[in-house]
Each structure stands twice: as C-alpha cells, then as structure tokens.
Design a protein that fits this description.
single chain; 338 residues; mainly alpha; 15 helices; 0% strand; globular; disordered N terminus; disordered C terminus; Blh_diox; EC 1.13.11.63; cell membrane; transmembrane
Length: 338
C-alpha cells in the first residue's frame, strides 16, 4: 500500500496549519477515548443516540464557512463571494430534490460520497499536519472512509433499519444478506494492513489514529461511534484547516493562540448554522423522536454534503499543488530567543 513521506518542516516549525492541527488531534482523540471509556465502564445502552445526535449537531458548523474558503485563497470580492454562496445553495437544493425524488439510489450515493469525503479528509489532514503537500492517496482514503462509516453501518444495521426505512419508503431498511459480513471482512483487515504500513514508515501518529478509529467503531455502539467521529473528529479537523486558511488568523496561530481564530470562525459560521438549526427545530417538532429526526434530517445533511465535499476536494487540489494557506504564507517566521 503506497504511502507518503514522513513528517516535514511544517510540523517541526510550528506553522499555523500545524498549530491548529495539533489542537484538533488532541480534541478528536480525547473525544473518541471518552465514548469508548463510557461504553467500557458503564455502557451506553439505550442512550447511544445521545452521542449520535450531539455529534450531528456539533458537526454542523464545520461546513458553515465553505463559501469563504475560495475567497481566502483567491481574494474574491463581495460580488463573487455572494455568487459563490448562491451557487453553493443551488447545488444543495438540487441534491435535496434528487434525494426526495429517488431516495434509495440517493442514499446509496450519499453513503459512498460520505465515505470518500471522510477518507480523503483523513489523508489530507495527515499530510498538512506533517508539512507535506496534499497528495492523492486512494487506497488509504478508501480504507479510512470504510472504517469510519461502513463498519458502523454494518455493525449497527439493526438499529439503523428504522431510519433507513423512513428515508426510503417501501423498504424495510435492512442490508442485503451477507453485506455486513463482507464489509467487516474487507475493511478490518485492510485497516490493519494500513496501520502496519504506517508503522513500518515510522508514521506513529497516523498509525495510532487508525488503531484508535478501529477501537472506536468496534467497541462503542455504532450510532455513538459515528456521532463522535463526525462531530468531534472529522468536523474538528476540518475546522482546523479552515482556521489556517483565514489570513486574519496568521499572527494568532503563529503565536500559538487559538482563542481569537476560533472566535472569528464562530462569528462567520453563526448565521448559516443558525439557519440550519432553525430548519432542524421545525423538523424536530414534527419528527416524533430521535429516529424520526435523523430520518427527516438525513436528506438535508446529504444535500449540504454535496457542495461541501466539492469545496473540500477543490481545497485538497489547491493544497496538493504545494500552495499554502494564506494564513500560513502571511505568518511571520518564528524566531527563537535564547
């Protein structure tokens, strides 16, 4: 399995990308450990839906400033920024309409798109954290995406069936016979092989993270595992990337200050997040419980995922050309005082 070179100068020098990435790494690992510890010590039982719903809500803001990311890199003005935001909303609307028109095929496409988005998010984050240009790592991305999404779906097929049945009218929500077994038989050995390959290249952090994700999806209840991954792992790491993209954050991140960048992000993300939360509040009032909320919310999340994944793919491509975020390029080079 082909992988990439080891850590580079960005991680050692403490660039804005690395500063935000280290904080995101600590948060994500701590959250995953907390959910696993909760299962081992007391068991989540009937409360496994709490990490799921909490994770879905916590993850909402991470894509709320997607419309600003191209502006950070391309120095767009207000008119282009507004046009891009309208285009983003148009793509999400079309995706929602397609999901409502053909929920079965749309759900299958959504699952595959999400798995790929999660997997490439992991490999891109690891590259940026280590100071490497973002590279296409097809096999590692496919393995990681399968691990964090397909394995919980396979393990939690019974719990997810009512939700799937509500999303896809006329279906019973169950997986085809044997599919869950096939997923586990393929993804888990592939994840073990990926972890071994990373260990052999002395990429200790990445190998440990593959192990941590495997423990999370195999020990924690499937719904809880996905909730904590989405809200406290994937979303937090994407937010770290966005913080490093904003040129206004350069001085603070270069000095190791995360508070002001996080406040700027919160202010920018608040209006879109509030709009989505308002829609979710209306859905909740008519949902009749958490399963109904997730089933009603799924087409909305799928619709938002499509333009979000496109923006992230563009960002990965830009980073793969060796261009650094403007925050990183604008940051002063730290000097060491004796």
């Amino acid at each position: 399995m082909r992988s990439l070179p080891g850590p580079g100068t960005a991680e050692r020098a403490g660039t804005p990308v690395a500063v935000a990435a280290r904080a995101a790494t600590a948060v994500s690992l701590a959250a995953a450990a907390a959910v696993v510890l909760g299962e081992v010590t007391a068991g989540w039982g009937d409360l496994a839906w709490l990490p799921l719903v909490a994770g879905l809500l916590l993850g909402l803001p991470h894509g709320a400033v997607d419309h600003l990311v191209p502006a950070y890199r391309l120095r767009w003005g207000t008119a282009r920024l507004a046009a891009f935001a309208l285009g983003y909303a148009a793509v999400a609307t079309v995706a929602w309409l397609l999901f409502r028109a053909a929920p079965g095929p749309a759900l299958a496409v959504f699952v595959l798109l999400s798995a790929w988005h999660f997997g490439t998010g992991e490999t891109a984050f690891a590259d940026l954290r280590a100071g490497r240009p973002v590279r296409r790592a097809v096999l590692p991305a496919a393995v990681l995406g399968g691990l964090v999404l397909l394995v919980p779906l396979a393990r939690g097929a019974e719990e997810a069936a009512p939700v799937v049945a509500a999303v896809v009218p006329g279906s019973d929500g169950t997986l085809p016979p044997g599919m869950g077994t096939v997923v586990l038989a393929v993804v888990l050995p592939a994840a073990a092989a990926l972890a071994l390959a990373l260990l052999l290249e002395t990429r200790w952090t990445e190998a440990a993270e593959v192990g941590a994700l495997a423990v999370l999806v195999l020990v924690a209840p499937p719904l809880a595992a996905f909730g904590v991954y989405f809200g406290c792992w994937h979303s937090v790491r994407h937010t770290a990337r966005v913080l490093a993209e904003d040129p206004a954050n350069a001085p603070d991140l270069a000095a190791g200050r995360l508070g002001p960048p996080l406040r700027r992000f919160a202010v920018a993300a608040a209006p879109p997040t509030a709009a989505v939360l308002a829609v979710l509040a209306l859905l909740w009032s008519a949902a009749g419980g958490w399963r109904g909320l997730v089933a009603t919310d799924l087409p909305l999340l799928a619709a938002l995922t499509v333009p979000h994944a496109l923006v992230v793919a563009w960002l990965d491509r830009a980073a793969g050309r060796g261009t650094v975020p403007r925050a990183a390029s604008a940051a002063p080079v730290p000097t060491r005082r004796s």
